[in-house]
Design a protein that fits this description.
Bound molecules: zinc ion
Strand order of the largest sheet: 3-5-4
Number of helices: 17
Shape: globular
Distance between the termini: 58 Å
CATH class: Alpha Beta
Order of helices and strands: HHHHEEHHHHEEEHHHHHHHHHEE
Number of domains: 1
Oligomer: single chain
Helix content: 40-55%
CATH architecture: 3-Layer(aba) Sandwich
CATH topology: Collagenase (Catalytic Domain)
Structural class: mainly alpha
Length: about 375
């Protein structure tokens, strides 16, 4: 049924590829489909698989990241390799997915559209990749529940904690095959999107686009991305219909305003006109979880550069989202805000990077308000 859409897209993308003259981009597209690694299914247990390790690396300097994180992490187009993998621009994954689709079409001209879709899904969502994502999702879930559980009762009451934790535990990570799982979103197999969706019957799911699996291999990036989506299940906008008042959320959101991450208009409008607050919250939560992933990995890093690269890769894909931000700039913070004010300003991120600035003098928002006002 979606064959015309795919084939049209294959031709458009491949035609535009031919026009791209940027050498850096051209090299992204050279990779052989056979060479796609299987993700890092043992990242959590510590066995590192990195097939890209021998490629020449761009290595961001920690002291520059401490001063100008966004520019240092995002300005160069180079791909950064951390011990668990790299993060390539979104288009790279989409092109790989489309090429794969085209290859299957050529190999099996007699196949029905459904058969081609099934084959595409089998080749992208391999058992290893699925296992890695399921492990990562399970790990994030535990960390997120623990984060909520350990908040002081004055900022999140016992009853509210139960509601939030139930919502976290209710999330299902839906990964094909079968193809029918994403029946209402067939394009997702060739897209970079990872998203959270709540259904009227109370079911909540996380879905992962096929292209994302091909472009983002860094475990740290997967932790941030999936944690961001899972956080939507408990974000202030998503739970606004539940008539629960969470003091910790109010303190956090007010702090975003004080820190000029949120404008007065946005603060007053709350969740009525956009999901901006929900997006900020999810970036903030994802940061808390990613910090734990980085800390857990600290004993395994061989040197400071590996740490620095992993920190950057956690949010590297956010650098590339400027284009897509234009269409919904009212609901997503700017990449610089997401990367710098929410992620890199986190005091633990600063410590991991070894930033020299007196960390106790920095303000960072928490459920208890600004860190310095505790
Ligand atoms: Zn979001």
């Amino acid at each position: 049924m979606h064959l015309p859409k795919y084939t049209a897209r294959v031709s458009i993308v491949l035609a535009s590829l031919a026009l791209i003259s940027n050498v850096g981009y051209q090299q992204f597209f050279k990779s052989d489909l056979q060479g796609i690694d299987e993700g890092n299914s043992r990242a959590i247990t510590g066995v590192v698989i990195d097939s890209e390790k021998n490629k020449e690396n761009y290595e961001p300097v920690a002291s520059l990241l401490c001063e100008h994180f966004y520019q240092t992490a995002c300005a160069p187009k180079e791909i950064i390799h951390d011990p668990t993998g790299s993060v390539q621009p979104d288009i790279k994954g989409e092109v790989e997915a489309l090429r794969l689709y085209e290859t299957i079409l050529h190999e099996h001209p007699d196949w029905s559209n459904e058969q081609i879709d099934e084959e595409l899904v089998h080749r992208i969502y391999t058992p290893k990749r699925k296992l890695m994502l399921l492990e990562t999702y399970g790990w994030i879930k535990k960390r997120m529940v623990h984060l909520i559980e350990t908040q002081p009762n004055q900022v999140i009451s016992k009853d509210t904690k139960k509601v939030l934790i139930a919502r976290i535990n209710n999330i299902v990570l839906e990964l094909p095959p079968p193809v029918s799982l994403y029946a209402n979103e067939p394009d997702l197999f060739t897209k970079n999107d990872v998203y959270y969706e709540g259904f009227p019957d109370g079911k909540t799911v996380i879905r992962v686009g096929g292209a994302y699996l091909l472009s983002a291999k860094s475990w740290f990036n997967r932790v941030f991305t999936i944690a961001h989506e899972m956080s939507h299940a408990i974000d202030p906008c998503e739970i606004s219909g539940q008539a629960i008042l969470v003091l910790g959320y109010e303190k956090l959101v007010n702090c975003f305003y004080e820190e000029k991450v949120l404008s007065l208009t946005q603060l007053k409008e709350g969740c009525t006109k956009s999901n901006f607050i929900g997006e900020l919250f999810s970036d903030w939560m994802a940061t808390q979880i990613t910090v734990q992933a980085l800390q857990m990995y600290l004993p395994k890093f061989k040197n400071q550069q590996e740490i620095t690269n992993s920190v950057v890769n956690s949010v590297k894909d956010l650098c590339y989202q400027e284009g897509s931000q234009l269409s919904n700039s009212d609901s997503h913070p700017e990449p610089r805000t997401r990367i710098e004010k929410i992620f890199s300003k986190n005091t633990e991120v600063q410590k991991i990077l070894g930033c020299k600035k007196k960390i106790e003098k920095m303000d960072y928002c928490t459920f208890e308000g600004k860190t310095n006002e505790r």
